[in-house]
Amino acid sequence: MRLNRLLSIVMLLINRKRIQAKDLARLFEVSVRTIYRDIETINEAGIPVVAYPGANGGLGILENYRVDKNILSDEEIISILRALRGLESSLGDKKILHIIEKVTGLIPRNKMEQVNEKCNQVVIDLSGWEEREAFKERVNVLNEAVEGCRAVSFRYIAANGVETERTVEPLQIYFKERTWYLYAFCHLRNDYRFFKLARMKKLQCLETTFQPRAVAGQWYNGQAGREGAGVELKLKFSPRVRGRVEEYLFAGELHYGEDGFLYVTVVYPEDEWVYGFILSFGKDVEVLQPLHIKTIICERAAAILDVYDGKKQQQT
Fold first, then answer.
1. In terms of pTM, does the model score above 0.90?
2. One digit per residue, pLDDT tens: the chain, 316 residues?
3. How far apart are CA 223 and CA 40, in angstroms?
4. Distance of alpha carbon 300 from the chain centroid
5. DSSP label at 19?
6. What is the DSSP string of 56-72?
7. What's the CATH code of the domain at 11?
8. How many CB atoms sit inside 10 A of residue 303's CB?
9. Helices 94-104, 2-16: crossing angle, 10 deg rounding
10. Same structural domain for residues 20 and 56?
């Protein structure tokens, strides 16, 4: 922990040139005395840090002392900063801000503006359009649990609406297709499971610790959080929804017929998500194969019609 703080202080001094000891103490949540002890250690390591008096004074690296910053190329620094800024936008983690400060400190002052301009050419923002501070807090609680090997408990709402109490050993926080998941060993199921963070309620980090298990390779299969058996779907889409279809499916999985419709063949785990996905296109999609899914969609569409017909009759 202290080594990380020492490196962060050096990078801050390189990047900001002058900084007050009290500001460093506030940033790292330690006392001013601890900061001065850190400065002594940095000096002993051969990096001369001195106190400059005056209104714009503070702690700074001795003038004319050069620190070798040629650890990474400019393009490598830009790629790292883009990724870190995107992650910070979703997590709001102070540790990520410290890392950004360190990496920024590697940029020569005469290139700072140029690097920032290139960084802003590609923006990665994993946060939602709305304010999601509560969601960020949930991610941070899980992150601390993963790092500290502490069990967590929560009430989980499945896709079918069934609620269960879960106690799990968190292994990984996983982001895929605009959704955050927790990959964990579930005590209730006695197996590895994916949990959508958005469906967790009353999340608590427990005092119970656990010995980390070997992470199963299941999450590399591209279908995180999907537990149904794979099924090959053959779908026919109206050209009216072309943009949405191409957004969800790779170009290699679809082709255009002479009738102008889009024909798609794709393999998905068969679960509630698949049924909802198909129904979300309304009259602009037809299930060609398999027949049992075509039947399920017909039954659900009929049930939807019954709901609205029933309300219409009540109104009359």
1. no
2. 566 788 788 878 876 678 888 888 888 888 888 888 888 888 887 788 888 887 778 888 887 665 555 556 778 888 888 888 877 776 766 777 777 877 777 777 778 888 888 888 887 776 665 556 777 788 888 988 998 899 999 999 887 778 999 999 999 888 876 788 899 999 999 988 889 888 899 999 999 999 877 665 444 444 444 555 678 899 999 989 888 887 776 545 778 888 889 999 888 888 888 898 899 999 999 999 999 999 999 999 999 888 887 666 666 5
3. 52
4. 33
5. B
6. T-EEEEPTT-----TTS
7. 1.10.10.10
8. 9
9. 50
10. yes
CB 204 within 8 A of CB 154: yes
Q: Output the domain CATH number for residue 248.
A: 3.30.70
Q: Are 235 and 264 in contact (CB under 8 A)?
A: yes
- Domain coverage including residue 255: 230-313
User: Nearest 10 degrees: CA dihedral of 220, 224, 228, 232?
Assistant: -70
Q: What one-letter code names the amino acid at 222?
A: G
Query: Which of 185, 216, 247 represents a domain boundary (last residue)?
Result: 216
**C-alpha pair distances (Å), 107 with each of 7, 19, 100, 112:** 15, 18, 11, 6
Flag whether 125 is in a domain. Answer: no
Q: How many domains does the chain have?
A: 4
- Residue 18 domain-assigned? yes
**How far is C-alpha 115 from the geometric centre of its chain's CA atoms?**
24
